[in-house]
Amino acid sequence: MLSDFDRVFDVRKLAPGVHVITEVDFVHAYLVEGRDWAVLIDSGLGYGDIRAVVEGLTPNPVIVVNTHAHPDHAGGNSLFENIAVHPAEAGRLGQGSSADLIRAYFEAYPGEAEHYPPVMSSGQFEVRPSQATHLLSHGEAIDLGGGRVLEVLHTPGHSRGSICLLDEANRLLFTGDTVYAGTLWAQLDESDLGQYAETARSLSAIGWEVNLVFPGHGETPQDGGLLLEMGAAFERLLDGEGLYEHACWQGQTAYDVNLGRVSVRVREDFHYPCAGGAGKDTKDT
Q: Please, are residues 138 and 102 in contact by the beta-carbon 8 Å criterion?
């Protein structure tokens, strides 16, 4: 259990000009530096002062780029002046997040509860609202100077406005919750499994061009082969394959479909689009 504020963040340098800032051993933010600017990809939960950490790492002006607006990725936004996000996520930033929603996120990871500050699961912690100062579009280039450019890829599925950021010159991809090794969440109200499958196909197509993948959760970095495995996992899912395990989200039944290094959490009423209607019932396997 965390009792010391200094243990909120773990900071590591992962590649030239790239630091990971991990908050309460749960969620990753990434500081990416160019010659003139730095981008903070996501801002964590907002429990600790991530701005102080960032200012200790770079003298450059910083813009926050949210991969999406979920509270574990935008919780520290209110500490910064410049915030960029996809238009489909902007409204949610302004709402902040209630203590009940924060608690639900942590209850979804009961095996890691020992790492969380008590306030996170007590129903007393809330994420402050923030406001986007720039709306991102697919294909937009964020030029940090010195040859470092991040390309915005709109990758909906987990949420409507989820994005990834591609550093093509250095063969790096920052993925938020769109891709990580583990169970990808497609069961949320704003999730869209069909869009997620399309995203998986598009990212799989660049898998051979990416050396390192920097996800929002879990082990980081991952190899570019994770993108190929994600594409294959969604193809298998839509073909009715995979091992179902019972899961739960905010008191409702869901299923985790185990497909190897990548699994997918789906709603109880999930149907196989490629199987025509209800498809196979494999939930008891």
A: no
Using DSSP bridges, classify how beta strands 212-215 and 172-176 pair: parallel, antiparallel or unpaired: parallel
- pLDDT score for 249: 76
Facing residues of 230 across strands?
none
Encoded tokens for 6? 């200094």
Measured between alpha carbons, how far is 120 from 104 in angstroms, rounded to an integer? 10
What is the chain's alpha carbon radius of gyration, rounded to the nearest angstrom? 18
Which residue type sits at 26? F
Q: Which residue has the higher pLDDT, 51 or 271?
A: 51
Phi-psi region of 277 (alpha: psi -120 to 50; beta: other; left: phi over 0): left
> What are 83's two structure tokens?
């915030």
3-state SS, residue 231: helix
The pLDDT tens digits for 121-139 are 555 677 788 999 999 999 9
Report d(CA 195, CA 35) in Å as an integer.
36
> 């003139």: which residue's tokens?
36
Confidence band for 270, pLDDT divided at 50, 70 and 90? confident
Pairing of strands 222-223, 252-258: unpaired
Residues 6+ apart with CB under 8 A from 9: 21, 22, 23, 48, 50, 53
151 and 139 Cβ atoms separated by less than 8 Å? yes
How many CB atoms lie under 10 A from the CB of residue 235? 16
Instruction: Check if the beta carbon of residue 159 is closer than 8 Å to that of residue 51.
Output: no
Domain ranges of the chain: 5-181+191-241
Q: Which CATH fold would you assign to the domain 5-181+191-241?
A: Metallo-beta-lactamase; Chain A (3.60.15)
C-alpha 68/C-alpha 265 separation (Å) is 18
The residue-averaged pLDDT of 102-124 equals 60
Q: What is the pTM of this model?
A: 0.89
